[in-house]
Amino acid sequence: MIISVIKLTVFFLIFSTYIYCIDIEVLPQKVSVGDVFVIKVFKKDDVKLSIGKSNFPTFLSDDGKFRRVILGVPSWWDSGNYDIFVDGKNTDVSIEIIKKEFPTQEIKVAPEKIVENEKTKVQREIISERILTKTKYKMWEGRFIMPVEGKITSEFGVRRKVNDKARGYHRGIDISAPLGSIIKASNAGKVVLVGEFILPGKVVIINHGQGIVSTYYHLSEILVQEDELVKKGQPIGKVGSTGVATGSHLHWGMYIFGVDVNPLNFVNNIYE
Questions:
Q1: Is the peptide bond before 57 cis (omega within 30 degrees of 0)?
Q2: What is the pLDDT of residues 65-77, one digit of tens each?
Q3: CATH 2.40.110.10 is the classification of domain 104-268
Q4: Residues 55/155/239/187 CA torsion (nearest 10 deg)
């Protein structure tokens, strides 16, 4: 009887080890602030995925063979290794965050344009809420495209000094283009916000699904409406300098679950 109990206990331990041995893949394994990485869990059933204190949903792949989530590296993560947990269990797989230094950019703006009051606070909250839009279904396909032709005059992550005062870092890229140039949707999605605001000027925000959102600021004209479904390459607005802007350009941003990432990640890579 004692031997049977021992055999049963050993079997249970082996079985327990087996059910928590999950095949998982992370690409790339070394990233910096603003980078994008993908976690694939080779399991069809829904799983709970966490990194540190943050929990993330996973979505079934297009071919139905695995679950995956696309994530961005937030500015508040320190450098080092972060373990990945699935269903509360350590997978022994980690993501390595590498420290990255960004240059400083000095900008001169007419002082009367820099407004910080209750109205700008409310407007910022409205924009932040739409950037956090999450839907289970995926609307984008393939690589994202540059929304307008032009020269990138301000890179992602540069430290901003406006009128000699530190203003945080740049959460997108600025593309210089002639006034009135057509801005195209970087990929298919649903328009979740259009409007004119004090700081970013005329704005369009598009939800691409599964936590991925793109933003378009300082437009001179908006060509779409809220709740409109747009296709990749569809005209959504025209380049302008509305809001706080030093010249005619488009500020293009990309967010994943509210975390700002370099939009060029989506132009240079395919996340399916």
A1: no
A2: 999 999 999 989 9
A3: no
A4: -40
